[in-house]
């Protein structure tokens, strides 16, 4: 069964003006699609054909000879997770379980914002900023290129922010900090974060 490009959870113009339809056309329609196409070509006829996306990621992460497969499979997963980490009229202070855990584990919302911004702003080159649930606590991290907390034992990603330039350059040019501010203030899908926490048994 070949991998397919998952549907976006909203129309391509739904995040405007924060993220434009033009950006979604390129980022989702071209970049994300290319990772799917490349992955299908790389796993066809191999022992990974027929495995789930998560299985392919974990198997290829542990085998340096499968770096190309890892990069494309992880980017398919990371991007799908990123689209769901945002929603129209999102952002701002969280609610529910994640709000409680941000207070308990991260020193409150303002400190969470500070640390998450720092993770996104200091990821040199391409990569991702993450909020995850690890060892019964919230953790903020950053990963380069296609790396993902999905490969870390006992870690459940809760939401991510893409800081590859193609995520924001058409709308923000070189102003990554402005994009990060907008992501936190206007885009984060806290309902998605709370669902991931519930699925993790938090």
UniProtKB/TrEMBL annotation:
Domain of life: Bacteria
This protein's UniProt keywords: Iron, Metal-binding, Oxidoreductase
Reactions listed under catalytic activity: 2 superoxide + 2 H(+) = H2O2 + O2
GO cellular-component term (any): cytoplasm
Pfam families xref list: Sod_Fe_C, Sod_Fe_N
Domain Manganese/iron superoxide dismutase C-terminal: 94-196
Signal peptide feature range: none
GO-annotated molecular function: superoxide dismutase activity; transition metal ion binding
InterPro entries to which the protein is assigned, alphabetical: Mn/Fe_SOD, Mn/Fe_SOD_BS, Mn/Fe_SOD_C, Mn/Fe_SOD_N, Mn/Fe_SOD_N_sf, SOD_C_sf
Cofactor: Fe(3+)
Domain Manganese/iron superoxide dismutase N-terminal: 3-87
Keyword Manganese: no
Residue positions binding Mn(2+): 27, 79, 162, 166
Enzyme Commission code(s) on record: 1.15.1.1
Protein family membership: Belongs to the iron/manganese superoxide dismutase family.
Cited function: Destroys radicals which are normally produced within the cells and which are toxic to biological systems.
Protein known as: Superoxide dismutase
């Amino acid at each position: 069964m070949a991998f397919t490009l998952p549907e976006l959870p909203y129309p391509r113009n739904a995040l405007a003006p924060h993220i434009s339809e033009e950006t979604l056309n390129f980022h989702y329609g071209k970049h994300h699609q290319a990772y799917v196409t490349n992955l299908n070509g790389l796993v066809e006829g191999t022992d990974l054909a027929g495995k789930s996306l998560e299985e392919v990621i974990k198997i290829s992460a542990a085998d340096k000879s499968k770096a190309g497969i890892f990069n494309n499979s992880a980017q398919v997963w990371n991007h799908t997770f990123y689209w769901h980490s945002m929603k129209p009229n999102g952002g701002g202070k969280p609610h529910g379980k994640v709000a409680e855990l941000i207070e308990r584990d991260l020193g409150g919302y303002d400190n969470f914002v500070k640390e998450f911004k720092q993770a996104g702003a200091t990821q040199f080159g391409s990569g991702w900023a993450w909020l995850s649930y690890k060892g019964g606590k919230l953790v903020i991290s950053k990963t380069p290129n296609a790396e993902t907390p999905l490969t870390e034992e006992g870690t459940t990603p809760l939401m991510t922010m893409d800081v590859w330039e193609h995520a924001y350059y058409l709308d923000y040019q070189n102003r990554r900090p402005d994009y990060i501010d907008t992501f936190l203030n206007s885009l984060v899908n806290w309902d998605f974060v709370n669902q991931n926490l519930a699925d993790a048994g938090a």
